[in-house]
Design a protein that fits this description.
The structure is a homodimer of 384-residue chains.
Chain A: H1 2-9, E1 29-30, E2 36-41, E3 48-52, E4 64-66, E5 68-69, E6 74-78, E7 85-93, E8 96-98, E9 106-109, E10 112-119, E11 136-144, E12 149-157, E13 170-174, H2 183-186, H3 190-199, E14 207-210, H4 242-245, H5 247-257, E15 267-272, H6 274-285, E16 292-296, H7 314-324, E17 328-334, H8 340-352, E18 358-362, H9 368-378
Parallel strand pairs in A: 13-14, 13-15, 15-16, 16-17, 17-18
Antiparallel strand pairs in A: 1-2, 2-6, 3-4, 3-7, 5-6, 7-8, 7-10, 9-10, 11-12, 12-14
Helix pairs in contact in A: 6-7
GO molecular function (chains A, B): acyltransferase activity, transferring groups other than amino-acyl groups
Protein name (chains A, B): Isoamylase N-terminal domain protein
InterPro entries (chains A, B): AB_hydrolase_fold, Esterase-like, Ig-like_fold, Ig_E-set, Mycobacterial_A85_antigen
Chain lengths: 384, 384
């Protein structure tokens, strides 16, 4: 068969072929009942463990589970029934943390790359690609005069954007200190959440603009002229005020490049962790701009640059923001979040301003599991 | 420092932090002189090798290089000087092939995920993101009435598209049997090549539409309702004629959704391997549609469905195509390509039709290295 030689010959792909010599290894295998089986062929290994954020299902204190070697030299472990979620995991082979070679679905978080899988029949059904109309996701560059560089954005336009003449409301969605303009799509499953919730009419069709909050960078690692460097979390721009100061450039770009309803009632801003901090200060400094503000596990921490006017007279700014009025000021945090107390203190401040907020206290900590869930709760509240 | 606790606490990111306890491992390190050093910390390993497409720099017949353990439990290997290229590689630890945990830059090819790095000062400078104006890259869905599904495309619009009212020429760019609508951007570095060549005016600003040539799929693995399955290369749609038959839907979608110059002189089609086969039959079956045709290592193989009218009377169709006229019929193949003889036979057929073609014979085989290079050679020939 010529076709067979075609497939056999096709460079790297050779290793993907299976001529019946050995059983194809499927890992992870998500079973109907919500248990998950991991498999790794590693004949020379002495000890293989799996480590993931589905643990402490983990059978030991290190939060790992031992995998068991079967007759085919395949190490195997099956979890207990897992709640619906997007999970990540690694294997540990004789102390070395590796990716699952049979799972091509990977997500980068700062300098770590982990395998992921979805367990459905619950909240993670919103994180799946389903057969509903899909929005368009674009990587696009805007010019920042203030930061003196061209910078990359991710823009979601909803189904129907291209086939109608309508104007749409807009949500600016900001990432945390480890993220960039890719994080909300990759780790946050934002386009799937939007597609799925817009399809069931639980969420109004809207444009979502996902920015890069590290103002020394023009784009995510590997996507700028800095090349393929090893990503770091800590950059000199963190809490220095540049993101907040130059945010109006992003609004201006968005409103002059997309069909946007350009009024406060149709403008929302939300962010997680550092992006919650940014959303707080952006909405306070431009206090008549956003009708909707979402602070997801906001990093209420001292700014690194106290001299920045952006960070001064916060109480006064919040007071003006409150007087100007808004539709929703929404705060969510997990009970185990290390920022819980900081957010509690901030809520007390808001009570004294007073600035009326909605508050959601969830289980868990400072995790993408919470931020995805917060997004699914926050979006239906917008533009009603 | 509160900020420090913020970074230390940040979930998965913890493993990315380095509090001075151990030296940060950089791998790969691309040196100024074009050598590359790989490093892997694996104290328990007995044998560590590196395997990549930069070999046969490989020191043994398996095309691997042994890495050497140094005093810090870090295994190390430095290559000889490498020609400029985008390379991929894996580590092999005691027989187990793994990714480099210090390199977050990964590319999927069918079911394999490999690490990549760039060596510059040559052709790969075109594969780098540089500080030139960037086009917009969108993931967008069109409705296929013929295939009865919504399907995903990657669309590149050039710098200036959004800020002018101009119409643009269009290139339809097709992938091989292992690919999908992501392959030309991920493995092919198409957006970088386009940005860089448009910036130096070597290439006319154009819209590039990258399709998914597996007609049983609506999108790349993980991007459709089929979920996160293990990708396979062989699907029942290969060479069955559906891609060619329903291609006019894609042209229609493109021309009604983008500012396109809608005439033959401004329409090009090109593809690699299976996509070259598709481009051949699409341009022959719609023989007055494309002024430019590019066949990159085309998979000139018997169709799987000989009954398909698309595949019948090829000589007659080519003859009509030749008589209708065109600007360029461009064929490129590597001397070591397993399809070399098939392409030679096809060229003889074209000589007898006659259909005048341009022919480039390169070194090497059926590889992305060639396809990236062919794209850089083909693009400047378009729309002049």
């Amino acid at each position: 068969m010529l076709l067979l030689s075609f497939f056999a010959f096709n460079g790297y792909a050779q290793e993907n072929l299976n001529f019946g010599k050995q059983k194809e290894i499927i890992s992870p295998e998500v079973h109907e009942n919500g248990t998950v089986t991991f498999r790794l062929k590693a004949p020379a290994a002495r000890k293989v463990e799996v480590q993931g954020d589905f643990q402490p299902a983990g059978s030991n204190s290190a939060g790992t589970d031992r995998m068991v070697l079967n007759a085919d030299s395949v190490w195997t472990f099956t979890t207990k029934v897992l709640p619906s979620e997007l999970y990540s995991y690694s294997f540990i082979v004789d102390g070395l943390k590796i990716r699952d070679p049979n799972n091509v679905y990977l997500i980068r978080d700062v300098a770590s790359v982990v395998n992921v899988f979805l367990v459905g029949k619950g909240i993670a059904d919103l994180y799946k690609v389903t057969d509903v109309p899909h929005g368009t996701v674009s990587k696009r560059w805007y010019n920042s005069d203030g930061l003196k560089m061209s910078r990359r954005l991710t823009v979601y336009t909803p189904p129907g954007y291209e086939s109608t003449k309508e104007n749409y409301p807009v949500l600016y969605l900001l990432h945390g200190v480890g993220g960039d303009e890719e994080a909300w799509m990759q780790l946050g499953r934002a386009s799937q959440i939007l597609d799925n919730l817009i399809a069931t009419k639980k969420v109004k069709p809207m444009i979502v603009v996902i920015t890069n909050g590290h103002t020394i960078n023009s784009a995510a690692p590997g996507e700028s002229s800095k090349g393929m460097y090893k990503p770091v979390m800590m950059t000199p721009d963190v809490f220095n005020g540049d993101m907040e100061q130059y945010f109006p450039e992003i609004i201006k770009f968005t409103e002059s490049n997309y069909r946007i309803k350009k009024d406060k009632a149709n403008r929302a801003i939300a962010g997680l962790s550092m992006g919650g901090f940014h959303s707080l200060y952006i909405s306070a400094n431009y206090p008549n701009t956003f009708a909707y503000v979402g602070l997801f596990s906001p990093a209420i921490l001292p700014p690194s640059n106290n001299q920045q006017p952006i960070y001064q007279q916060l109480d006064k700014k919040l007071s003006i923001q409150a007087k100007n009025g808004f539709k929703l000021y929404w705060i969510a945090i997990g009970k185990k979040d290390f920022l819980f107390k900081n957010v509690e203190t901030y809520r007390k401040k808001l009570d004294t301003i007073p600035l009326k907020y909605d508050y959601v206290e969830s289980e868990g900590g400072h995790t993408w599991s919470n931020w995805r869930a917060y997004l699914t709760e926050f979006l239906p509240l917008l533009f009603n």
